[in-house]
Structure formats: C-alpha cells, structure tokens
Write a structure and sequence with these properties.
The complex is a heterodimer.
Chain A: E1 2-4, E2 7-15, H1 20-34, E3 37-43, E4 58-66, E5 79-82, H2 85-91, E6 100-104, H3 110-115, E7 132-136, H4 138-145, H5 153-157, H6 160-171, H7 177-186, H8 191-210, E8 217-219, E9 228-234, H9 235-250, E10 254-258, H10 265-272, E11 280-283, H11 287-299, E12 303-308, H12 310-326, E13 330-336, H13 353-358, E14 367-370, H14 377-391, E15 394-400, H15 401-405, E16 407-411, E17 457-459, H16 474-489, E18 506-513, H17 517-529, E19 534-539, E20 541-543, H18 549-553, E21 556-563, H19 568-576, E22 582-586, H20 595-607
Parallel strand pairs in A: 1-8, 2-5, 5-6, 6-7, 10-11, 10-12, 12-13, 13-15, 14-15, 18-19, 18-21, 21-22
Antiparallel strand pairs in A: 2-4, 3-4, 9-16, 14-20
Chain B: H1 29-42, E1 50-54, E2 69-72, H2 78-88, E3 93-99, H3 100-106, H4 108-117, E4 122-127, H5 162-168, E5 173-178, H6 182-194, E6 199-204, H7 216-219, H8 221-227, E7 228-231, E8 238-239, E9 245-250, E10 253-258, H9 280-287, E11 295-302, H10 308-322, H11 328-332, E12 337-340
Parallel strand pairs in B: 1-2, 1-3, 3-4, 4-6, 5-6, 7-11
Antiparallel strand pairs in B: 5-11, 8-9, 9-10
Classes of the chains: A alpha/beta, B alpha/beta.
Amino acid sequence: MKTELESVVIKFAGDSGDGMQLAGSLFTSASANKGNEIATFPDYPSEIRAPQGTVAGVSGFQIHFGKSGVYSPGDAPDVLVAMNPAALKANLTNLKPACSIIIDSDTFTKKAIEKAGYEGNPLEDDTLSEYKIIEAPITSLTKSSIADLGLDNKSMVRCKNMFALGMVFWLFNEPLDETIEFFNDKFAKKPVIAKANITVLKTGHNFAETVEALTSTFFVPAAKKLPGTYRNITGNEATAWGLLAAGKKANRDLFLGTYPITPATDILHELTKHKWSGVKIFQAEDEIAGICSAIGASFAGDLAVTTTSGPGMALKTEAIGLAIMTELPLVIVNVQRGGPSTGLPTKTEQSDLAQALYGRNGDSPLVVISASTPATCFDWAFEACRIAVEHMTPVILLTESYIANGSEPMRIKSMDELKEIIPNTTDSTEDWAPYKRDAETLARKWVAPGDKGFEHRIGGLEKQDITGDVSYMPLNHEIMIQLRDEKVARVTNDIPQQRVKGKDTDDLLVIGWGGQFGILFGAVSELQTEGKNIAYTHFNYINPLPSNTADIFSKYKKIVVCELNNGQFADYLQAKFPDFRFERYNKMQGLPFKIKELKEKFNEILED
Amino acid sequence: METSTAHCPLKAKDYKSDQEVKWCPGCGDYAVLNAVQKTLADLEIPKEKATFISGIGCSSRFPYYMGSYGFHTIHGRAAGIATGTKIANPDLSVWMISGDGDSLAIGGNHFIHAIRRNINFNLLLFNNQIYGLTKGQYSPTSELGKVTKSSPHGTVEEPFSPGELALGARSNFFARVPDSDVKMMVQVFKDAERHRGCSLVEILQNCVIFNDKTHTLLTDKETKADNQLFLEHGKPMLFGKERNKGLRLNGLALEVVTIGENGITEADILVHNAETENSVLHSMLVQLSLPEFPVALGVIRNVKATTYDEALHNQRASEKENSKFKTLDDLFLSGNTFEVK
C-alpha cells in the first residue's frame, strides 16, 4: 500500500558521533532533487563528542519535506529515528501523536538505558504505547552485512546511520541512486569504505521491505515551484554565495577577515573554497583583528566583510565605531546564537538585535538588516553589500543559527539577473574632498590608497565636515552626528515598501523579523485559511525601517510582535511608534517557534 | 599640449601634509618624521602609494603629518588594519606607526601575529618606555621599579624587551635606532622598506615631558660612542671612541674585548651576519644592555622569507588557474541541482 502525503517531518537522532547530520543531509539532498519543498533544522550539542549515550550528547537532524505547506522544518516529527535510548528520551517530549519511531534495538542494553536516565526499559513498559514502534537490530545487522570487508569493529559500526537511512528511504519511496553516487564520489580513493556504506544502505532498505512491521509506505509528490534550476542550500552557504556575487557585481575584490565562531564558521569554510573567484580570505588571530583587517581592506578599496556571532560582535564594537566614523563600506554578518556571554553556542536566538542597533559608544548609527530563510540569505547578503558600498556605511546583517544551518531549495539566479552595485566613487579630484557628500544619499566618496591626487588621512577622531581634518569644534561635532544619522536614515529612500500578507486592514497584525519568517508565515497562513481576521508583516529592514511602516500599523486593531528574545524588536518599535501598542510573544528556549504554539497565541489574542 | 613625463623626483618636504605638527617641543617624534620623509624621497616612493596606519598614542598622530594616505585607527589594532590594507593592495608601501603601549600592551596579540605571519609592511615601534598621551603611566617596557603616576611606589613587573619578543614571534627583520640619529634612521628605514616581510624597527624615542633622558646614556655626545654598537651586515662588531672595542663569543656568552689588549686582534671580533636564519646570536645581541655592554643598533636581523601577502596571492592565482569553475554561474550550477519546468 502506498499512501500519498502532503508533507512529512522526519527526525534522525543519535549520539553526536552517530552520523545523524550526514544521514539527514543525504535524505534532504535526495528529497530536494526529487523536487520536494524542504526545510531542515540540524540540532546538535556544542561539544564535538559529548558524553556518549547521554541525553546531553544527542545530535538531531530534522527534515520537513512535502508537496506544499513546508514553511518551516516542522513543529514535531511524524517519523523519529532513535539510534539509542538517549535519543529516544531526548525527543519523546516532542513527537506528533501516532508518530512512527524506528529504534535500534541493539542499543537498548541495561547500561545504556540507565545512562539515558530511564528506570526501566522503555521498549518493555508502556512509555511508547501511543506510538508506532519499529524495532530493528540496526547495529548487529550493519556489522553482519559487511563482516567480509575486513573492516575493524569501529569502522563497521560507523556505517549504521546508513542502515537507518535505507529504512527511511524505503518508507517514503525515495530513490537511493544519489546517495550511492555520493559515497562512490566521496570515497573514490577508499572504495572499501564506499562499498561498506552502500551495502549497509541497501541492507537497511531491504530489511524495511521484508520486515512485517512496515506494511505500508508513503509517497510525497513533488512541489509546484517557479520554473528554474534549484539546489538545496544552507543559510551559511547562501550567505557566502551572496557575498561572492556582490563582489563581482560591485566589480571589487571580496575580502573576508574573520575568526572562527559557532555558528558562523561555515561562511568562512564555504568562501575559502572559492579563492579561484578572487576572494581574499584572512583568518585572523581574534575577532578584533578579523574586523580590523576588513576595515583596512575597505580603506584600500575591497568589498570587505567580517562574519561572527554574538560574543564576537561584542569584541568588534570599537572597530565598528571606527568604520562608522571613517564612513567606509563594511558588511558585518552576525549569525546569532543564544546569549548572553557564551550562552547557547549551537542553539538559535534573535537576541543580538539591540546589540546591533545600539551596541557602541557614542551616537553611532548604522544599517541593520536581517535574512528570512536559508535560501534568501543569498539575497540579503547581496543587499547588505549593495547598501554598504552605495551608501558608504557599515551594514550589519543578522541571520541566526536556525536558518544558517537549516536548508531549503534555492532557485539559482544567474549573474545576469542580479542588479549592478555601483560603488560611490570618483575619478576627478576637482571639487572632491574626503568628507564631501552626495547630495541625495549623503555618502562620501570611496577613494583608496594608490589613487593619485586623492591622498588624504582618515581616522577615529571627529572629522571636520567636508575636509575630513581632525576637528574638536563644538558645533561641527553636532553637525557631523546629525549627518551620520541622516545618511543612514536616507537609506530608507533606497529600499522597498513594507508589505503585508493578508487584508490591508484587519483585527490582528502579526509582526516578525529575521529567520522566523517561515514559521510565522505558516502559522498566519493556516489561520487565514481557517477564516481568521489576521495578517502578517515581516521585517527584513530593521534600521532604517521602510517608510510606510507606521501606515501599516495604523490599519489594525491589535499588533503582536513575535521574536526569539525578551522583546527587543517590540521595544524598538514601541520607542519609534509610541502611538501604537505592541503586544509581545517571546520565546527564549534556544529553539525556533512552533506553528502550533503561535496559532494558539494568535487565537487567544483574537478572542480577547 | 603634452604633459611632461620627465623624471621629477619628490623631495622630503613634498611628503609633508598641510597639517600643523602638534607634538610637544623637543619631542623625539619630529626627527623620526623627518627621517621617514627623507627615506620616501630617497627611495622615490610615489606619494599615493605610501600608506601610514597607526593606532593610538602620541606617535600614532604621525599619519596626519604625512602628505600620503593615512589611517589613524584605534588603540592597539593598527596591525590588523595594516594587514587588511596590504592584502587588499600589495602594491602599496605600508607603514605601521605604533608605540610601546599600543603594540606591546593593548595590541600585543596583533603585534606578534603580524610578525609571525610576515605581512609585508614596516612597523615603526616608538619605544619611550612610558605612556605619554595619557600623561605618564608606566608601559610594558618601563623598567622594574619605575616610579610613574600610576606606580608611585615603583612598578612590580618586569618589562618586555621588544627585540626578544619579536624574535620569539619569529621575526625576520629587527632593527633598532635612537631617535637622535636621523642619518642612522634613514639608513635603517631604507633597509626596512627594501626587506620583504614584516620589518620591525624599534625606535628608542625620548618623551621630553614624562620620561626625559631615558635613553640619554645611549644618545649623549659624550657617551654614545662607547655605548652604541652599530651593526652592519658583514662588518665586525666594533665600537668605542677609538673603535678598538668589540664583541667576541666566550663559550655561550658574548664578551667585550679591546683590540691590542691580551693579544686580541680584529680577527677575534665577531662579524655581524644579519642574514642568517639562525637567531641565537641575534637574540644575544638584542639583549645586550648597559652598563656591561653597549646597546646593539642598526639592522640586527634581516632574513629572506616568503611573505604572507605574497603566499596568499600566489594561492589565489593557482586556484584560479586550476579550478574547474571559471565563473560564479559555473559554481551556482554545479553539484546537485534539479530543474522545475
């Protein structure tokens, strides 16, 4: 029997060394290539090898794939793969009713069960009574299927993720070809490893077909999308590609000065593969040198970028002030994680907004924008560069762990499709001065060492208007503060109007920003389908805000701001628009929103 | 009318900016400024290619007084900014201007890493052993027990020796000059500019207000000949008014000997080899201190090595040559893609 489903959520969970991220990625890739809508969410501990067998050490990878309605990686799985008792325990609190659970029964030893914190064997009591349990001796069957390849025990056991993947492929009638190709490619020089993984994959597939516990399979048809060429991409990869594209479109070399930090490092990993494109990569000795090198490169005329996460942002603040004072283009990508301090390095949060807006000494405005989804990180990274270069200002791009590590299909844009970025520069020394501004944008000209006749000095001391000489004059300081502020405010003339999903006027307006777009959009869409008087507006431009923002707010009876922090965007809006009342829905658990909890909250407000 | 392309070299004064120099009267920085301007003129470095990048401190005002490009940055971070500038445009002649507080305290981390990476710029370290701009606190090079505004009972910490620190960070070029000798500075700055890599020049600079005469034994007319050992590659390590004193190795230590005494001849005197990779003798030389020894000046170490910026650009070029991708469109369409019609 083959049942057609709209969409399904699968979660692979196991020890952090069990290869769950790989199994999840391979399923994602196969599903994306079939043409499904997908959204993924890897969820792993910050320790590289956390204590084996403990709940703290569980690594998970959740995939939502379907024909339609895939706005997020899904609230809770329909199918859970639990490679050990700890993985079962860690996920048991968040499963859909009647969820199918594939379990490696070999791992449910007395010791492992105790280590996971169970008193008795959950397979033998009624812990799992409401779920559909599929027990399989995954570890032992993995080993026996490749016993003749001459691998040591450790190498054999390492293949067991492929057994689970094979079972899941069968369950959803997904093709194996691409995964087989992946191993042949990856281990071309170690054919025995390729063979072991492929054999185990097929063994798991065959086991699922044979075993009586699985009587029916499911089929998720391909989604309807805009025509074009697609690929699966994570937010961090898309960010890297957007930066590469912006460099070419601005006709400037791309420079990345950075220091590794979770969860931003994958941007560095991706960009450093592409030195062929001309990108210059500098892995600095610390966060400060990362941004300072980028400022130095910007001074010398490169499109300069630094990437980091919250604690790194804190270290960069003084240098950001220098970029503001010297009015150099600079893109600062902050892939947000849970804070304060070291906080939750591998968990998602949106709590660096206030830091991005205000976290510097002095009156120091800059542009803050945010990305919505993994694929659109491409567009927002590109946009950050465009604004920086055309308006001569640092731009902070906020993404977040949830979309940076999550993935979805991206329609590939050709370079011809992308608009040109026009650096605000000049060839003529006539009528030029270091701080002379464009009449419309107030941007000063970008001229770099090597340009003859433009020799000048800049620095962190206050500048004399126009000449850029050092000035301590009282009135000049006030004028310069106002000019810097006005320059950033005028970016609003160069960004699109804010849009609303839903009716122009209604009972409740839901506001979201950044990477929670998919879930918020999904929750509001579902309520709209149910006939509720609700609309949604999503902010990507945070500072400055689109010019019609207040206009939109005035059309709704109630407004609620939803964000993964203690109300930072709501505070910001409240200060900017004191005439409106902003209700708040905040979540601070290191986890994204869930459609279910959002709908409950919105219904509550609507009924109030 | 055709523009004349005749060779018309700039003079030292052409490298001055229109800004009034605001260091204290008698400050050692004036001499350094003159020496740098003369160096640029002698080496015919175009004004637009010379780029001066400084941190914070008295000496860090330096870029404002140069008519070239300049960037007065933030405390301790000039090395990071200079690194980015040099990587972005390797054609520039980049000069980092810094002091003992800027480079050895707040910017210590960037200082050692710039040296280790061998970024191709000149690092002029103005060492006056005091914090001048904040009006007289001790610095990481102030001697143990130094009484200052922030150490009224004397410091209780050992100072850094910049030379030892630099050699520990695997410096390929280390030189030392007094701010009192413009001729020596020009000679050494030229060597620094010609050397490919991070060329560190420690300038023994006098802060006339907060630490006056700290290098006086070394710079006074009366004592300097006996207290300065000016090193030149390939030449014997001789010093003294009569140039009859020299250094020789005695076991694992250096000792001062006098030619003509105890059968010592010039053949016994060590000959300076700045270009050897082996840093043992360089390390001994940077540590020499008064009164037992003269202070080593001039280019102490000058070793050829690949620079970071060179290596980075070579790697980019070879990646470009060998990559299967030629355009970003190639990249975007590579790997697992699928068509939706």
